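# step 3/5: fold
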Amino acid sequence: MTSPTVASTRGELAELLGSARGAGHRSAFVPTMGALHDGHASLMQVARAEVGADAPVVVSIFVNPLQFGAGEDLDRYPRTWDSDLEVCARQGVDVVFAPSVDEVYPGGTPMVTVSPGPLAEVLEGRTRPGHFAGVLTVVAKLFGLVRPDVAVFGQKDYQQLVLIRRMVADLCLGVDVVGAPTLREDDGLAMSSRNVYLDGEQRRQAAALSRTLRAVQDAGADGLVAALDAARTELRSAEGVDLDYLAITTPELDDLTSRGERVERDDPDLPTGPARALIAARIGTTRLIDNLPLTLGPPSPAHPENHRGGDR
């Protein structure tokens, strides 16, 4: 197992990647904030598969202050440098870019940032104003520094993935953005660096998030209203879950939830086809997010005693 080469400055990074570009290799990039786990390792595996054995895979480890709002866990966010390097080494990562805040933001907070537009004002953006401006700004800067051909992001942060793809398309950044499936614990909980904050009882409670999403996924075949009903039923029995939102959207994050809450179950005009179910909640003091894809089928017949989406 060979340890990756570590670059901490822009100059070191450029020197390390220059020879690979000269050889004509495509490069793959996995941006992270560290505290790496098996979910991150799976992103590195996808990155390697995208570019092949001889091409460079770069992982960045940088806790980005721009995406943390007031009262969020910037100082509390786990830093696990030694174990992070071990994860990268096991996955055959070639270069780890671990810059300081001053290296990424010389002179302090940048005067020019990336505006994520109206999609950043819903779901996570409603709860965390300014978060996605910070995410897109640092991703754009890292793309400029690494200049990858392929960048791999996890689908667990689905709204982030959609926004990054939109930014790449709108700003013509020329990076192929790959969304890798969410890796899960044995109880279904999505792997996250924040899971370390949960005690045993909270871990048990947190499993309700993935159970709710699976219930939505299963019920989607009977239509949008049935999927929302399944979510409500599951959440009614969930203990210790302080729900922020449960939403069903199109794959592009156009809202379908409000429509499903206003119409009759057997409305023939309800949307069908690919969709996404997204959930966010606090378990104790820890905020978790998760999502799953689903396919909405044609609406099933209404039950006489329970015929409107908004009445349940």
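# step 4/5: annotate
The CA atoms of residues 14 and 262 lie 55 Å apart.
# step 5/5: archive (pending)
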